[in-house]
Design goal:
Oligomer: single chain
Number of strands: 19
Distance between the termini: 42 Å
Strand content: over 45%
Number of helices: 3
Order of helices and strands: HHEEEEEEHEEEEEEEEEEEEE
Shape: elongated
Mean pLDDT: 79
Structural class: alpha+beta
Largest sheet: 19 strands, mixed
Low-confidence stretches: 1-19, 42-54
Helix content: 10-25%
């Protein structure tokens, strides 16, 4: 296909979708936290009057329909309960309890800490475009400012989200918190029964680990596990396995650096079989370009009718234009050579 072919453009767009969606998701969650700060600031300023009217005005200005219950309004502590955003019959977000600790000063109060308990968020990603219903006008603006973490201390207690659409259903849970630019520390869990990405699918994929922010750079470390991986177009299948991930993103979320250790059972690849695979790699992604180097070790390998007790592949992989072009180079070695059944005939 030519570069101008619409089908090619759709494929490139789909391959670029994941980094873009991740940035939007992170920005979206942080935008919700900023909204919480605005809400409690209005409550504090109008604490001796009917605060609900001012809160309603704030939500209306952002095109957001919400209901809530005010539990308490004090000079140094504000609490809202039963927050429902969107259609009450099918809300886009709910929060059981939102508590904001304030430090009184001249003018607007200083927010000391925000604690959100029982947050639930629902969203969809369709054709690479994420949507969170009535929250979209707040989350997805036309701002061209570089992404930056707000200077807030945020605590999340049993926060959960369900994202459906292009990648299949993905359920997330977050517990933890801290100062967002430097010191945020939370446990993250994600489950995807049928994760779909780039022409491949992973069955029963799970991700557990620790999300930390240091010097405005988010980092994640933890295990990814799967019951199997299938890439029909590439002729690749992997049995049950997993990968130990260790990644850190740039402050503006435009790129990342990562390391992983991979294990998988009964691998099937074009022209090759292996009873098990193990590997290690490192990768850097910036400006739509991925640079990686890796090693793969196979056990009980069969290639072209030849059997090897073990085989190894050391190489580099480079992709440009958001995975539109991929270049793979490397060296293959093996041990324990013997002829397969095809040579006995």
């Amino acid at each position: 296909m030519s570069p101008d072919d619409p089908a090619d453009e759709k494929t490139v767009s789909r391959r670029r979708a994941l980094p873009r969606v991740l940035r939007w998701l992170v920005r979206g969650v942080l935008a919700l936290l900023v909204l919480a700060v605005l809400i409690v600031a209005v409550l504090w300023l109008e604490r001796d009057r009917l605060a609900g009217n001012y809160l309603d005005d704030l939500l209306t200005q952002n095109g957001i329909s919400a209901t809530y219950r005010i539990e308490s309004i004090e000079p140094d502590r504000q609490v809202l309960r039963d927050i429902v955003v969107g259609d009450p019959a099918a809300p886009d977000m709910t929060i059981e309890r939102a508590e904001v600790r304030l430090i009184a000063r001249i003018g607007l109060p200083q927010v000391q800490r925000i604690t959100l308990s029982g947050l639930r968020l629902w969203g969809r990603v369709v054709d690479g475009q994420p949507s969170f219903g009535s929250l979209d006008p707040l989350l997805f603006t036309d701002s061209t400012e570089p992404f930056a973490l707000p200077e807030l201390d945020v605590r999340l207690e049993d926060a959960r989200a369900l994202i459906e659409g292009d990648f299949g259903p993905i359920a997330l849970r977050v517990n933890g918190g801290g100062y967002l630019p430097n010191g945020f520390d939370a446990q993250v869990a994600a489950i995807a029964p049928n994760l779909r990405l780039g022409g491949c699918s992973a069955a029963q994929a799970t991700l557990y680990g620790r999300l930390e922010v240091a010097n405005q750079r988010p980092g994640f470390a933890g295990p990814l596990r799967f019951a199997g991986v299938s890439c029909p177009d590439a002729g690749v299948q992997l049995g049950a396995g997993g990968a130990a991930l260790d990644a850190i993103a740039d402050a503006d979320l435009s790129g990342f650096r990562s390391e992983l250790d991979l294990t998988a059972g009964n691998a099937v690849m074009p022209g090759a079989l292996a009873a098990a695979l193990a590997g290690r790699g490192e990768a850097t992604y910036r400006d739509g370009t991925l640079d990686s180097r890796f090693t793969l070790d196979g056990r009980a390998v069969e290639v072209g009718g030849v059997r090897l007790a073990s085989a190894d592949f050391a190489g580099t992989l480079r992709s440009t234009q958001g995975f539109a072009e991929v270049q793979l180079d490397g060296d293959i070695g093996g041990a324990g050579l013997r002829l397969g059944p095809a040579f006995d005939q």
